């Protein structure tokens, strides 16, 4: 006979997924039998995955008078009968089948009384829920029985003694320890199977330990038996750096301290039920989290002093469904006892306080509680302070709902400055508004209260900032797949691999739109097949697209406008106000009313994001960037002189009277240098927009109407549509010929020049001589001469190709990288 001694005892707890069906239970038993080769093993089992929820739902339906509760009971019975059939040879199934049927009959009897009474008390609910673990643990025992493995099954209700707080009963450890020791230590078996989650009060009435409470049962058995270890077997390979359902790149944490594990689970890491840790920590029992489906994985070891790692933050977790209670008023300042009364009022109502912050002025205290407790808390607090409220020394309690906490956890954070800074900047750049913050003085935990709808984004942003230094995701929304858009997609596709390998940047195009349709895929579109996807896309409503961008709420979102459309420019404000960066080669916004331009710039500043439009002037040439650099470093722009139209420069460099002017313009359009509407170029309007944008960027308040535009086109050319425009160009050939001949005769060249001088801007055709800076300007090149305080005599010159889809796309790409702050 084997007499177990405490040091040869292990407690293994298996969660709902681990025992979800017969096949999984077989895996569980492999693990158990392996452990039992060395030690006595206590196996604590959860209900089959989903059964506790089904039991609750059945009770609630019955109480609501819905006979459909019976369907749920049938489903519950079915799942267990199936598991019996998977686990036990046909010849010996009958005992196990009838055991399941007996339990299910009992269950049916309870539910029908609930149905008859139309009432479900907490006490009855506990009784109902207990069937999940009773059934699952008996299934495990039945399999051991069928395979002739020595074992004992015990009803935890005879072993774990609690008070009568149904739903989340508190354990009487002295009695429990004795009951467990007497029972388990006395038995000869090497394997003991017990249901998790359930217990009983002194009267023997069934209680439960709270949802997820089987973990806690494991700890209770481990402590009572002074086990050498407690293993929590679940469906993931350990406690992870973040909830793997929210963060794709979450990684298991190999080593963690009890304190850290406690903080993570307290702040929502569901993998471990929070009360589990305290008892094993006190008893010095190592706690391990392992994956039933990958038993060879290391898992997580929770211990006193885990080895140091590079990561200062050990993990990130979150809890949703919170309400912030704000108590405010001048009456609190300097008066002792307010917080005491506040917390006593909350305690009387058994309101669980999750986070507390107090402003240093003592003007306000904020307390985060579960939403279900909020109204009770309000009544209790307003009653407690009724006198102060009536005398206006305090405001009535103010509630903010729909909130969540995201917490960074790690004991070595206290030795590392700058963690909060990184947290604030990562969240700030992504438009996540922080409603409250708390940092324990022990600095194991920095908690932020944010909107529940921001949780997924916030956790991913923080996970990137603290665990994926080498990996950043940029989410791009592109509107426009014309000349430039196509080239941009080609460049992105070509660079995707490079960005990932060299810059650790995952650039994902999440949405793509032309003027009619759009396609959106939260996981990123395949840039090899975007044309097909877009062809099957949905009808485009820009407002809907913007709403979807907001609803997706993805981190590092950048909206790219490669259209020339005013409707698209009208969306920028809504995007910037939600911290979505905007990159535009579309000039409409920056050349619109000054007020609109200024508002977009200030929205970008206010919401900590970028509004970038380098390609508005000179395609990819660093014109706006250079201008900004000059100003930021204290220089002052006196004068600018520029050729800013690739189209016009191309036209005047190619027109020599031998081919008609109209034909040369047509060639410029065919080669992709013109605006979609070439009249914008030829009329000088496009150049006027550019010098306007430069003047504005130089700090001048200016409108389009302030620019002096001396047209060189006969008015008739602009009277009709684009085909009429070309006809009129042809009809006025002699006019263009004359301009050319006059210039050539004087040894000059025609340049369409934009100039800015001391607050005044003008555009117009000039014939410039060989000694002029603008004379030598080939092809479709642009040039900008900046005369500033520092560049007073010789200008700072930016020169190069100023038009063309390829270079414009490259400029947009560069802005995109800047917006992503790479
Ligand atoms: P069990 O039924 O085994 O008790 P639970 O569903 O209660 O399993 O807990 C495991 C689940 O917890 C995982 O599948 C995972 O989705 C979720 N989870 C949330 N946060 C974390 C985290 N930080 N680390 C690991 N798992 C987590
Ligand atoms: N079955 C219970 C629940 O779902 C206890 C547990 O699985 O830990 O809450
Ligand atoms: Mg669990």
UniProtKB/TrEMBL annotation:
The lineage of its organism: Bacteria, Pseudomonadati, Bacteroidota, Cytophagia, Cytophagales. Homotetramer. Pathway: Amino-acid biosynthesis; L-threonine biosynthesis; L-threonine from L-aspartate: step 3/5; Amino-acid biosynthesis; L-threonine biosynthesis; L-threonine from L-aspartate: step 1/5; Amino-acid biosynthesis; L-methionine biosynthesis via de novo pathway; L-homoserine from L-aspartate: step 1/3; Amino-acid biosynthesis; L-methionine biosynthesis via de novo pathway; L-homoserine from L-aspartate: step 3/3. Bifunctional aspartate kinase and homoserine dehydrogenase that catalyzes the first and the third steps toward the synthesis of lysine, methionine and threonine from aspartate. It comes from the Bacteria. In the N-terminal section; belongs to the aspartokinase family. In the C-terminal section; belongs to the homoserine dehydrogenase family. GO terms for molecular function: kinase activity. Its cofactor is a metal cation. Gene3D superfamilies: Acetylglutamate kinase-like, Aspartokinase, catalytic domain, Dihydrodipicolinate Reductase, domain 2, NAD(P)-binding Rossmann-like Domain, VC0802-like. SUPFAM superfamilies: ACT-like, Carbamate kinase-like, Glyceraldehyde-3-phosphate dehydrogenase-like, C-terminal domain, NAD(P)-binding Rossmann-fold domains. Residues 408-481 form the ACT domain. It comes from Hymenobacter algoricola. It catalyses: L-aspartate + ATP = 4-phospho-L-aspartate + ADP; L-homoserine + NADP(+) = L-aspartate 4-semialdehyde + NADPH + H(+). Keywords: Amino-acid biosynthesis, ATP-binding, Kinase, Lysine biosynthesis, Metal-binding, Methionine biosynthesis, Multifunctional enzyme, NAD, NADP, Nucleotide-binding, Oxidoreductase, Sodium, Threonine biosynthesis, Transferase. This is Bifunctional aspartate kinase/homoserine dehydrogenase I. Coiled coil: none annotated. InterPro entries: AceGlu_kinase-like_sf (IPR036393), ACT-like_dom_sf (IPR045865), ACT_Aspartokinase (IPR054352), ACT_dom (IPR002912), AK-HD (IPR049638), Asp/Glu/Uridylate_kinase (IPR001048), Asp/hSer_DH_NAD-bd (IPR005106), Asp_kinase (IPR001341).
């Amino acid at each position: 006979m084997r007499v177990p001694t405490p040091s040869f005892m292990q407690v293994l707890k298996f969660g709902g997924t681990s025992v979800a069906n017969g096949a999984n239970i077989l895996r569980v038993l492999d693990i158990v039998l392996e452990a039992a080769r060395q030690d006595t093993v206590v196996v604590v089992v959860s209900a089959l995955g989903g059964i506790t929820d089904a039991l609750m739902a059945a009770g609630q339906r019955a109480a609501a008078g819905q006979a459909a509760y019976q369907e749920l009971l049938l489903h519950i019975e079915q799942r267990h009968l199936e598991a019996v059939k998977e686990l036990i040879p046909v010849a010996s199934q009958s005992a196990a089948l009838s055991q399941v049927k007996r339990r299910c009959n009992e269950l049916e009897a309870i539910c029908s009384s609930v149905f008859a009474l139309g009432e479900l008390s907490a006490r009855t609910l506990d009784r109902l829920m207990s069937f999940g673990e009773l059934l699952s643990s008996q299934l495990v025992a039945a399999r051991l029985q069928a395979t002739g493995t020595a074992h004992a099954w015990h009803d935890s209700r005879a072993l774990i003694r609690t008070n009568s707080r149904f739903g989340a009963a508190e354990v009487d450890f002295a009695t429990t320890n004795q009951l467990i020791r007497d029972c388990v230590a006395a038995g000869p078996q090497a394997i003991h199977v017990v249901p998790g989650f359930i217990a009983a009060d002194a009267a023997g009435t069934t209680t439960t330990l709270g949802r997820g409470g089987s973990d806690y049962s494991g700890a209770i058995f481990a402590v009572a038996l002074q086990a050498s270890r407690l293993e929590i077997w679940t469906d993931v390979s350990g406690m992870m750096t973040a909830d793997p359902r929210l963060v794709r790149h979450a990684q298991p944490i190999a080593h963690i301290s009890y304190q850290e594990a406690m903080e993570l689970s307290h702040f929502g890491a569901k993998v471990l039920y929070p009360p589990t840790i305290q008892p094993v920590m006190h008893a010095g029992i190592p706690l391990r989290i392992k994956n039933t489906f990958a038993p060879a994985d290391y898992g997580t070891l929770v211990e006193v002093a885990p080895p140091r790692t590079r990561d200062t933050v050990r993990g990130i977790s979150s809890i949703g469904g919170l309400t912030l209670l704000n108590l405010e008023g001048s009456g609190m300042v300097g008066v002792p006892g307010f917080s005491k009364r506040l917390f006593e009022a909350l305690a009387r109502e058994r309101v669980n306080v999750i986070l507390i912050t107090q402003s240093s002025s003592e003007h306000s205290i904020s307390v985060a509680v579960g939403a279900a407790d909020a109204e009770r808390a309000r009544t209790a607090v307003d009653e407690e302070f009724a006198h102060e409220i009536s005398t206006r020394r305090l405001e009535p309690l103010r509630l903010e709902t729909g909130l969540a906490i995201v917490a960074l956890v790690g004991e070595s954070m206290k030795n590392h400055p700058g963690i909060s800074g990184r947290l604030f900047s990562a969240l700030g750049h992504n438009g996540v508004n922080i409603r409250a913050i708390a940092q324990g003085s022990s600095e194991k935990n920095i908690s932020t209260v944010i909107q529940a709808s921001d949780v997924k984004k916030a956790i991913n942003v923080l996970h990137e900032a603290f665990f994926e230094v080498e990996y950043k995701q940029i989410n791009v929304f592109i509107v426009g797949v014309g000349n430039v858009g196509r080239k941009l997609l080609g460049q992105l596709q070509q660079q995707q691999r490079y960005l990932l390998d060299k810059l650790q940047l995952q650039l994902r195009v999440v949405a793509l739109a032309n003027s009619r349709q759009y396609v959106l895929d939260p996981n990123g579109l395949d840039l090899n097949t975007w044309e097909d996807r877009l062809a099957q896309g949905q009808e485009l409503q820009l407002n809907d697209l913007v709403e979807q961008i907001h609803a997706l709420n993805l981190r590092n979102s950048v909206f790219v406008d490669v259209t020339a459309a005013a409707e698209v420019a009208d969306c920028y404000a809504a995007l910037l106000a939600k911290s979505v960066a905007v990159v535009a080669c579309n000039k409409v916004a920056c050349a619109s009313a000054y007020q609109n331009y200024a508002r977009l710039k200030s929205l970008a500043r206010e919401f900590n994001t970028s509004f970038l439009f380098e390609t508005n002037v000179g395609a990819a040439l660093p014109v706006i960037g250079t201008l900004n650099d000059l100003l930021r470093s204290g220089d002052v722009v006196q004068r600018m002189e520029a050729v800013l139209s690739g189209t016009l420069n191309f036209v005047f460099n190619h027109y020599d009277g031998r081919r008609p002017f109209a034909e040369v313009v047509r060639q410029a359009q065919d080669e992709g240098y013109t605006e979609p509407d070439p009249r914008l170029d030829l009329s000088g309007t496009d150049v006027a927009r550019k010098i306007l944008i430069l003047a504005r960027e130089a700090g001048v308040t200016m409108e389009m109407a302030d620019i002096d535009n001396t047209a060189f086109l006969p008015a008739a050319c602009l009277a009709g549509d684009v085909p009429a425009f070309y006809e009129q160009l042809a009809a006025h050939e002699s006019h263009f010929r004359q301009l050319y001949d006059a210039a050539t005769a004087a040894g000059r060249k025609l340049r369409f020049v934009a100039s800015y001088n001391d607050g005044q801007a003008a555009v117009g055709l000039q014939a410039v001589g060989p000694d002029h800076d603008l004379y030598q300007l080939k092809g479709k090149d642009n040039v900008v001469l900046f005369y500033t305080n520092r560049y007073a005599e010789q200008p700072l010159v930016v020169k190069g190709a100023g038009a063309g889809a390829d270079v414009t796309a490259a400029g947009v790409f560069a802005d995109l990288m800047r917006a992503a702050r790479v």
